[in-house]
Design a protein that fits this description.
alpha+beta; 2 domains; 16 helices
Length: about 425
């Protein structure tokens, strides 16, 4: 059985999230995307956990998978430690979530008010509590220069101490992919997760990155076995945005976004000529940590496919805004014919797509084959993708630098 899964999102109870990050909306939008298993996010928040309890349990698969319509949910939460490093926890049951809530409540001032709580514990201490709760744990968006493991530590062991062997996965984040992370030998044993960290439910946010797993059924134990690569269960595909598109890919000023090489940034003591701070990019940070040659991957590592959301590919292909009637119309016609966005982006043969949307087939094919050009992001500004490196600025797609209309209203365009 093959499932698509986005394991890191947030609810309406996290800071800076859409009020539409509720369970019915998430279930509806995940179904359109083609995501069979969605992380709940924020499962330690009392109000969100109460809402999750109202869902049906997946029949015959234990008490760790919850169902709304065609979408299955697994309990997840992002936690910030005392050093501001973020950790993703995947939990087996409501009882274990309640147990973890009680354990963390003693160390957190905002666990009742913020879906992503801050706790006054180290990464190692959080991992111990996760193990006691039989939860999986790993670092979130591990390479970004804010709130990430490699922003503050040089190794997994520095963060997790004696609990390092319990860590089973690492989340790559938008500015890194397999080719980056596998240059660090200590990561070769881990499963790489690619998740959206979505704060709104729209198709350009939810599951913009996702994982494909081979399992025998939808249960926490099967997901755990796939992440730990046991009993033949395993990840078979990572899908994510091109890392150069990430807004912290290259070292750049956080005020004017001017890019610098690592040598230049060090020489300038990480201060831009405009006076702003230069933030070290993911690419430079990986180069500092790298102890393996590029292109070396462990045998268990699945392929990594660089994609952006379908509406944005259509927008790029026909040179219309992502929320235009033209883009929405093509998006709807493709889903009407092929069922889900993931089907269109990954699985449907190009010849079949040609019959429905000939004007965008070339763009989808270009992404599948990696024939795109990316002007790298940095300093907090997303990169720019084009299908042709010779395109002028008007023909390129500004990548997520601004919210779409759908993010600014309560109207779901899709």
């Amino acid at each position: 059985m093959i499932i698509n899964s986005d394991l890191h999102i947030h609810s309406l109870y996290s800071a800076a999230t859409s009020p539409r990050m509720d369970l019915p909306t998430l279930a509806k939008e995940a179904s359109k995307k083609g995501i069979q298993l969605l992380g709940t996010g924020d499962c330690l928040h009392p109000k969100w956990l109460r809402a999750i309890k109202g869902l049906e349990l997946e029949p015959g698969h234990g008490d760790g998978i919850f169902v709304h319509g065609a979408t299955n949910f697994v309990l997840t939460v992002e936690v910030e430690d005392v050093r501001r490093v973020h950790h993703l926890l995947i939990l087996p049951s409501i009882a274990k979530a309640e147990e973890l809530y009680e354990a963390f409540k003693r160390y957190s001032q905002d666990i009742d008010s913020d879906g992503r709580p801050s706790v006054r514990l180290t990464g190692a201490e959080i991992a111990e509590y996760a193990k006691d709760a039989e939860a999986l744990i790993g670092p979130c968006h591990a390479f970004t220069p804010w709130t990430a493991l490699y922003a503050y530590y040089n190794s997994l062991r520095e963060c997790y101490g004696e609990m390092v062997d319990y860590i089973s996965f690492i989340e790559l984040g938008l500015s890194a992919d397999t080719s980056y992370a596998d240059r660090i030998e200590e990561l070769h044993r881990l499963t790489f997760l690619t998740n959206s960290d979505a704060h709104s439910p729209y198709p350009i946010r939810l599951a913009r990155e996702f994982n494909r797993f081979e399992v025998s059924d939808l249960s926490f134990e099967e997901l755990k076995a796939a992440i730990e690569r046991r009993r033949g269960r395993k990840p078979v595909l990572n899908v994510g945005v091109p890392p150069a598109e990430g807004k912290y890919n290259e070292s750049a000023c956080i005020r004017c976004y001017r890019h610098y090489s690592l040598t230049e940034a060090i020489a300038r003591h990480w201060r831009c000529e405009c006076g702003g701070m230069i933030k070290k990019g993911v690419r430079d940070r990986v180069n500092e940590l790298a102890d393996c040659n590029s292109g070396i991957h462990p045998p268990h590592r699945p392929p990594y496919l660089h994609l952006i959301p379908l509406a944005e590919i259509i927008s790029l292909a026909i040179r219309k805004s992502v929320n235009s009637k033209s883009v929405v119309g093509i998006w709807e016609s493709l889903l009407a014919e092929f069922g889900t966005e993931v089907n269109v982006l990954v699985d449907v043969p190009i010849d079949e797509l040609q019959k429905v949307a000939p004007g965008v087939v070339g763009a989808i094919k270009a992404f599948r084959e990696g024939n795109i050009h990316v002007k790298p992001g940095g300093g907090g500004k997303y990169g720019i993708i084009s299908l042709d490196s010779g395109m002028n600025e008007e023909a390129q797609r500004p990548c997520r630098g601004q919210l779409s209309l759908a993010d600014l209203t309560n109207t779901n365009l899709y």
